[in-house]
Structures are given as C-alpha cells and as structure tokens.
Design brief:
Elements: E1 10-18, E2 25-35, E3 38-43, H1 49-56, E4 59-64, E5 67-75, H2 79-89, H3 93-97, E6 101-107
Antiparallel strand pairs: 1-2, 1-4, 2-3, 3-6, 4-5, 5-6
Length: about 110
C-alpha cells in the first residue's frame, strides 16, 4: 500500500476530505508519514479546515503520483505514537518536539 515511488517513510501527497459546511471535496497538499501500513498527517493545532472536515466526516482519499487510496481517518490519542510520527516527519529538532495533532489514516 506504500506509494510506489517512495522507499522513504515520508512523502508529499494530497489529502481530500469532504467539506463540513459545503459537502464538497476539499484537497490540500501535505507531508505524510507511512508507518506499519497506515498513513499519518499532523498539524500544530486543530484550526486547519482539513482537520475540522475529518472530525465531521472521517472518510478521506490520499493521492500520491497516480494512485488514490481511500481511507478512514481518526485522531491519534497515543502520545508516544504521535511523538514518533513527528520524529519521522521532521528533521528540525524544534518541530520534532512540538506538540501536534496527529491523524491516522487506515486504508480501506
């Protein structure tokens, strides 16, 4: 399920959510972490529209290269896992240690 062109743990891709107000598809470019068959995205706070959309409707699509992967998203409550995702995602020490809201996307 990992993106074909990547042997890395992190990659840039697109996340599509359903708008919580409009019901229309909304797409943003994000850096993802792929770990143990699941995808992860994160944010410093919960103010991002894509994150608010997930809280309303957890069905998402990840697009990388020519592949689309449907998934189910949820907030990571395990703080140890959230720290691990930040360590994999960022090279900057401050960003690695910054508390983040982490979303786990399980492919369908």
């Amino acid at each position: 399920m990992q993106p074909n062109h990547q042997n890395k743990t992190t990659f840039l891709g697109y996340l599509s959510t359903i708008g919580r107000v409009t019901g229309k598809t909304r797409t943003v470019k994000l850096r993802f972490v792929f770990l143990d068959g699941k995808f992860y995205a994160s944010r410093r706070d919960s103010n991002a529209n894509w994150l608010k959309n997930i809280l309303r409707n957890p069905n998402v699509v990840i697009r990388v290269d020519d592949r689309e992967i449907s998934g189910y998203a949820q907030i990571v409550k395990d703080q140890e896992l959230a720290r691990k995702i930040s360590e994999l995602k960022y090279t900057d020490k401050n960003k690695k240690e910054e508390p983040r809201v982490v979303i786990e996307i399980t492919p369908k």
